């Protein structure tokens, strides 16, 4: 057969409309060049690459791709016996190293010492491992893939995961911003929720122990749709959009499984015998957290680890197998997003696990034994840490491995933020590489640093994080609750509500005045900790226990101080229900759902819910500058203002109001929805371009109280002329009866007259003072009226 090639002009083609040639049958998919390490699925099959520069040879042991029926079961299975056994043995090829040179830490491979295999008929949910032959001894080591997306605890076995298989319904958190549409030239503004493409996920409300305990077994939609939104400014971008976050720190392994009816459905830890709860059960409690008003969950570490809390990582890209499969984690994130809740992951990248370290001597012992610390290619020369061996940060291959962890979690699991544990134990240049890669590959990911000492000039300005944990505010709060020296009162009060030195905006630090996992958790059965010179306990126990009225009042006060002051507020799980004692993963100290519905718990939950409402719906509490306007240390009183301009655009802008599709009003918040709309749901006609949102916050850390009679009110001096001209409404006070306080403790209409049905009471400044009741051990938040 002879093939003739001719050149045809455009004119000739128009004159000679020949019929199209028949399509040539498509051949098998072609392999695409692959520089990523690990198991990467392509249309033609799967490409396996592993870095083992000291190996004599590497053999891939892999299974065939499971059929559709088996795959459907394996998506949610953590039982290794259900997976196909890898039996195919393929000798991997060592990639040529000519022309290779050491690159930057962010540069992709090729690295010297990489081995590769391309295998068809292998794909999503196939199992595999690497058999590494040591160069000197000839010993063959069965190894996990350091880049594996799924593995099994304690076993040299991995599962191929294709990230593209999962169909996301909510790749990002459902929009909960409350917006306005302009009518009549902008003078009249109607509040409505910004539309979402898809509704919240469907679930059985009765499956939530939290909703059952609170008596909320309403329809799935009623329980799932957040009943209020976030008063964000749509013009903000980047980290400024995070000011409305109210965070809930959660340890997945101990969040459920105690007095919630799930005990028989949860596996036990192989070493301790303790229950280890999972992602599926935690997902069932997401509506409970949405009902409480939390819009961000910060998970303790979820990558595969040994130990109990998660800070001894062994596999950095794979979810902890005891918690569930990659699909379980994606379901959790997808469902959280459907409720407007962000998910933040915690990464410990400064060391490897002290036990069962999958990377230790990965391709054999170090060339020079233990002279440089040993540990093989990932650890030699890395030095030690209090928790385990530090990585060999001086190797660009190791830096490339570590800098890839964050982007993988952000992109493959749609994680909204990443906390970097003890980041001060990672070399500065390596941290720069980690942050730079995340900014390039996941620019919207919110980056949180735990850095000691607490120095925003280093963590935020130099290293480039968005925010950092603030432990010092917690220590000052503890001192204030014990009414220490009056000489330090103003400094410490300022510490817990205002920006600390070096911070520029409210969202540049996370405040946790009731304690985080380190302060609440204890691994030594409640013993005194010499390093911190304190017992580690839930806040309620630090101040006297659940049976103490003063302890409950102080915990309410501190929670209110967090939502009223600067910083992103965060609590460790259980604070909202007054969990006592200390936290650990054993059955006696994990989250106890048995107390969630008792009187003390419901009162605290009501307080938390109302405080979260006010925080999220009040721009001044998110972005307003804190200004101390009055302080009286002998009486334990401090008053501060927060003010911010809220723009009102002609088409769409944020306005503080309850969404039209909000479901009812919770028992916790005593200002009815209609009154809130009347007060804050419309811009004054003469300020159609915007308005100033303003609050006054009164904190009383003492036994003194004012307001038992009209002539015994507390007079708050208001020097600013604009604030003097406004009417004020008490939108929150921590001693409200529903929260555990008493009737008549605040400045609502029903505080004046218990028979009064209405609660909204407008208060005017008289003689230069706002005269109000102030309860002992309380926080009162007054907001200037808009409507």
Write the layout of secondary structure elements.
Elements: H1 10-15, E1 38-42, E2 45-51, E3 55-62, H2 68-74, E4 88-91, E5 93-94, E6 114-119, E7 127-134, E8 140-143, E9 150-151, E10 158-159, E11 178-183, E12 188-193, H3 209-213, H4 220-224, E13 247-250, H5 252-255, E14 267-268, E15 275-276, H6 279-284, H7 286-292, E16 296-299, H8 326-338, E17 342-347, H9 396-403, H10 405-412, E18 417-420, H11 428-441, E19 446-449, H12 456-462, E20 467-470, H13 472-481, H14 489-497, E21 509-511, H15 517-520, H16 539-542, H17 549-564, E22 568-572, H18 599-617, H19 619-623, E23 625-632, E24 637-647, E25 652-654, H20 673-680, E26 690-700, E27 714-717, H21 721-724, E28 727-733, H22 749-752, E29 763-764, E30 769-772, E31 778-784
Task: Please give a structural write-up.
The structure is a single chain. This protein is α+β, with helices and mostly antiparallel strands and 787 residues long. 22% of the residues lie in helices and 20% in strands. The strands form 7 sheets. Strands 13-16-17-18-19-20-21-22 form an 8-stranded parallel β-barrel, surrounded by 5 helices. Strands 3, 4, 7, 8, 9 and 10 form a 6-stranded antiparallel sheet that branches. It has a 6-stranded antiparallel sheet with strand order 23-24-26-31-28-29. Helix 13 packs across helix 14 and helix 17 runs parallel beside helix 18. The protein is elongated, with a radius of gyration of 29 Å.
């Amino acid at each position: 057969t002879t093939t003739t090639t001719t050149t045809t002009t455009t004119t000739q083609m128009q004159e000679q409309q020949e019929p199209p040639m028949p399509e040539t049958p498509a051949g098998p998919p072609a392999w695409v060049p692959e520089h990523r390490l690990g198991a990467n699925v392509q249309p033609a099959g799967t490409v396996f690459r592993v870095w083992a520069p000291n190996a004599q040879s590497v053999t891939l042991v892999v299974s065939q791709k499971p059929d559709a029926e088996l795959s459907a079961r394996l998506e949610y299975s953590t039982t290794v016996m259900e997976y196909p056994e890898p039996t195919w043995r393929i000798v991997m090829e060592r990639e040529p190293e000519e022309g290779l040179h050491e690159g930057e830490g962010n540069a992709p491979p090729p690295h010297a010492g990489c081995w590769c295999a391309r295998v068809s008929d292998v794909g999503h949910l196939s199992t595999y491992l690497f058999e590494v032959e040591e160069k000197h001894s000839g010993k063959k080591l069965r190894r996990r893939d350091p880049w594996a997306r799924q593995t099994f605890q304690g076993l040299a076995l991995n599962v191929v995961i294709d990230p593209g298989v999962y169909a996301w319904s909510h790749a990002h958190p459902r929009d909960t911003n409350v917006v306005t549409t302009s009518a009549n030239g902008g003078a009249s503004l109607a509040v409505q929720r910004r539309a979402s493409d898809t509704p919240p996920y469907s679930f059985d409300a009765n499956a939530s122990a939290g909703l059952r305990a609170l008596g909320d077994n309403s329809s799935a939609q009623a329980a799932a749709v957040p009943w209020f939104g976030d008063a964000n400014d749509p013009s903000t971008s980047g980290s400024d959009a995070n000011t409305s976050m109210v965070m809930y720190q959660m340890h997945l392994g101990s969040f459920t499984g105690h007095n919630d009816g799930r005990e028989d459905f949860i596996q036990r830890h192989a070493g301790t015998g303790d229950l280890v709860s999972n992602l599926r059960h935690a997902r069932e409690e997401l509506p409970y957290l949405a009902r409480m008003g939390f819009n961000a969950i910060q998970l303790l570490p979820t990558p595969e680890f040994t130990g109990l809390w998660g800070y001894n990582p062994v596999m950095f890209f794979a979810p902890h197998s005891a918690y569930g499969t990659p699909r379980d984690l994606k379901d959790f994130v997808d469902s959280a997003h459907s409720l407007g809740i962000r998910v933040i992951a915690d990464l410990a990248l400064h060391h490897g696990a002290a036990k069962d370290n999958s990377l230790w001597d990965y391709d054999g012992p170090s060339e020079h034994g233990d002279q440089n610390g040993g540990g093989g290619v990932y650890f030699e020369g890395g030095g030690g840490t209090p928790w385990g061996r530090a990585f060999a940060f001086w190797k660009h291959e190791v830096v490339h491995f570590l800098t890839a962890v964050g982007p993988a979690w952000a992109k493959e699991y749609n994680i909204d933020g990443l906390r970097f544990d003890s980041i001060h134990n990672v070399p500065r240049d390596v941290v720069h590489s980690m942050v730079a890669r995340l900014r390039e590959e996941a620019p919207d990911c919110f980056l949180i640093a735990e850095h000691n000492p607490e120095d925003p000039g280093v963590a935020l300005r130099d290293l480039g994080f968005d925010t950092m944990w603030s432990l010092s505010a917690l220590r000052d709060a503890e001192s204030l609750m014990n009414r220490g020296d009056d000489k330090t009162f103003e400094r410490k009060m300022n510490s817990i509500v205002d920006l600390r030195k070096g911070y520029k905006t409210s969202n540049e630090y996370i405040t946790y005045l009731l304690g985080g996992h380190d302060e609440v958790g204890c691994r030594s059965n409640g013993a005194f900790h010499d390093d911190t010179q304190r017992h580690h306990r839930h806040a309620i126990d630090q101040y006297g226990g659940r049976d103490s009225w003063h302890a409950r009042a102080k915990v309410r006060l501190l929670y209110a101080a967090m939502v009223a002051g600067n910083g992103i507020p965060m609590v460790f799980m259980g604070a909202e229900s007054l969990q006592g004692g200390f936290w650990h993963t054993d059955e006696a100290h994990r989250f106890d759902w048995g107390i969630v519905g008792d009187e003390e718990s419901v009162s605290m939950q009501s307080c938390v819910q109302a405080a979260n409402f006010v925080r999220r719906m009040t721009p001044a509490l998110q972005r307003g500058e804190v200004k101390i306007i009055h302080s009286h240390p002998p009486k334990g009183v401090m008053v501060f203002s927060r003010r911010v301009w809220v723009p009102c655009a002609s088409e769409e802008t944020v306005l503080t109001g309850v969404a039209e599709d909000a479901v009812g009003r919770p028992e916790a918040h005593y200002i009815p929805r209609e009154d809130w709309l009347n007060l804050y749901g419309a811009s004054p006609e003469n300020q159609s371009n915007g308005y100033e949102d303003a609050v006054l916050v009164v904190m009383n850390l003492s036994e003194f109280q004012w307001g038992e009679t009209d002539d015994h009110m507390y007079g708050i001096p208001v020097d600013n002329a604009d604030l003097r001209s406004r009417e004020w409404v008490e939108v929150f006070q921590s001693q409200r009866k529903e929260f555990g306080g008493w009737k008549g403790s605040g400045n609502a209409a029903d505080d004046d007259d218990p028979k009064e049905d209405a609660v909204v009471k407008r208060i005017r400044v008289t003689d230069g003072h706002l005269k109000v009741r102030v309860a002992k051990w309380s926080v009162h938040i007054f907001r200037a009226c808009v409507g």
